[in-house]
Amino acid sequence: MRKAIIIVVIFNILRLAFIPFVGLTPQESYFAYYADNLSLSYFDHPPLIGYIIWLFMAVLGHNMYAVKIASFVVIVLAQLAFLLLASKILRGERKYLAWVLFCTSMLVTSMSLQNGPDVPLVLFWTLSIWAFYCAIFEKSVKHWIYAGIFMGLALNSKFPALGIPIGLIIFLIFSGRHRKLLAQPWLYLSILIMLLLALPMLVWNIRNDFITFRLPSVLRAEPFDSDTPRNVFQFILSQVIILMPVLFIGLWWLFGKYLWRIITKPNQTNAEMWFLFSFFFPAFIGVYLVSVFGEVKYNWLIPTYITGIIMISKVMKERWQFWHWALTSVLYVVCVYKIVLAPNSPYVRYDLGLDSEQLAHEVDSVHAANPNTFVFATDGYKTASKISFYSGDTIYGPQIIAQTPYHFGYIGLNANDLKNKNGLLVKPRLNSNTQFHLIVPYFDEVRKIHCVKVAGVPAYDIFYCENYKGIEKENK
Known about the structure:
Helix 13 packs antiparallel against helix 16 and helix 20 (356-369) crosses helix 21. This protein has a 5-stranded mixed sheet, covered by helices on one side. The chain has 21 helices and 5 strands. By secondary structure, the chain is an alpha/beta fold.
């Protein structure tokens, strides 16, 4: 136990030390935009992440560290919740092995250093499973209520939380000893509590054409095309990195072993392992199947690994542990080099948001020299969010050219109110997903007036756009 605590504490201290070297990423700037514009829900995510960041910024101020510390604190709580869950199922040193595997993983490190909806989702997913374990195996009625609350908070974090009640129902259906719980009211009370906690989010979506619920089919997946084989490979590679090869291979082995056992010998499957497996395999196999038909994100499987790691810790041999720790050490050395020792690559600075403050400062200077203009960016949420966090100006997003507006189009910023005004377009040279020809038709003339250099390399162009023509359909 003492050794495990020392390892976990050291890793968390190192993550804290990393924070100054990891800027406010574009995603975090966008979620901070949520906090600056509190709402019952948001265009592309449920509301909890915005509330958490708002709380920490209210205490620590409107700065990068408030956003970063918010994710660090929540993920530390998730690590403690994981130990609480693992202690229910594993005995002796095995529970500490599971805890260390989880706490030292790259998936926990990534969430510690980059805030996002997955952070509270992992916390409340873990607590939900813990509460259901206590309710079912320890016959504690009050934990059905706790489970409903935790599921509601998980659902207000991210929609994959729906996998929690789905996994539990699968467990109860195929567990002869516990199937009778389907005829009792407690499961349905938990689900009712979850839905009641999600009501504010539902109200916002009723008012806004259910955009948050429709979004996965609109933005999150691309149809099957020639890039699909590459997308599948990239997704698999991302899972190998965040898990490390030993855990990655071990989880696939575990998946095949227990799925075959449940199919062939359902009555001989350990109830606790089947309980854990029910929260692991549906999303695990589902996301991999979806990856064949469209692009999926690396973080979609993170919640499933909570029970997966506990399961594999029960059977993990010492030689597997050796190779896991060896490969994990190599990966962390590479990350230290990339982030701390060689951070001046334009791609690194763009992806980590290390250019955000400088960019906002130069945009403010150009804006001051060109009064009576509005500032906008059209590369999704990234550049607009980066500028908005460090600037006092109102920044417009892709709604200016009638593209997917993200939340910029849902806080009362009507693009048509800007008709006949001049604008300043901030366009990144890297990773820009908006073609220039989409912008030109909305203005009489577009000309470049400034270049922003990052680490000595041209990274952004600022264009002066004359006489905005507006769009036909009004924004929210």
